[in-house]
Queue: 2 jobs
Job 1
Amino acid sequence: MCSVTLACSLRTLGMVSKICGIGAGYVGGCTLSVIAHHCPKIQVTVVDISENIIEQWNSDILPIYE
């Protein structure tokens, strides 16, 4: 990645205050949890068609299996 592209990306990231991800499965849930962890100033919201998955993410038993 060239420095110009990186500078534009960092400048754009500074303007982001909210992110909404669709899908809390193996990819979406993990990706958005990492974003939330590393970007505490950004409000991260995840939506999914499965209420069960959302309930698991909101509980102490996360739906991550390794």
Job 2
Amino acid sequence: MGIAQSVDDAYFQQKVKLGQGGFGTVWRAVDRKTNHFVAVKQIDKLQSYWQGAKRAEIQLEIDILRACDHENVTKLYTYFEDSQTISIVLEYCDGGDLDDKLMEQGWQLRETEAGAWTRQICAAIAHLHARGICHRDIKPGNFMLSSGLLKLSDFGFATFLAKGETSKEDVGTPAYMAPEQHLLKKGSPGYGHPVDVWAAGCTLHMLVSGGHHPFIKGKPNTKQVLDMEKLYGGTLDFGASMLGGLIGGAFQPAPPEARSLCQRMVCPDIEKRLSADEILQDSWLTRTAQDAISNVASLKEKGTASLSTG
């Protein structure tokens, strides 16, 4: 089955099938007016998935995307529905996801890169929280890359949740879920926006430690389990010999400022856990942003000097 006829009226025929799952298919299409690529998420209402899914869940995802307008959040262009399908037309990201990108690099990156990724991740979260949205599935694999920018995607677990409100819905990826989420079955009063910050903190730990998740036990390609004792305590071990990893390809300890920020994001005490807005004001993110600007200026100066002496 191709893209729904109503979508074909606005976009060229699909060029590439990007993926397929129980919900339906994601296509790459071309906007007739701009000649730019878009991604079309087509939900097949005739498949078994639809039988168990509520129409309201799909509408919620659409409404959340419509409420967002930020460079670090995947943009919703429009959507169509007919008797067989719902087609959601989204910004197309050609750079893959952050998880794949970092694995290609062996999780080795410069400090300025780690700071830039963290800043963009938290900018997206701050934007959602300001609009009363909790994503509930922040992780590297849910950030797509487009022209060097991170774009938060996959809003299947997202919900409208005002600041201070709580939810007891058990959703998310366990390795990135905060203690208050894991404790739902043991009487936790619920969770709110801070769970997104916790997940971003786990991601930051991976960025500055060569890809090591703070709460997963076991080596790659072996059975891995969550260390719940460390998770509940928010215990981070940056000093372990298996960690290290940024600053120009050579393994070095994670910068103290990054460690401090990570610890304040991965804090079991919800009241002490930083907000996304507070993270964006952190001294480490400010310094790495300034360093990145200085690096670019230095390269330009060297290029100019080379031309003048050439």
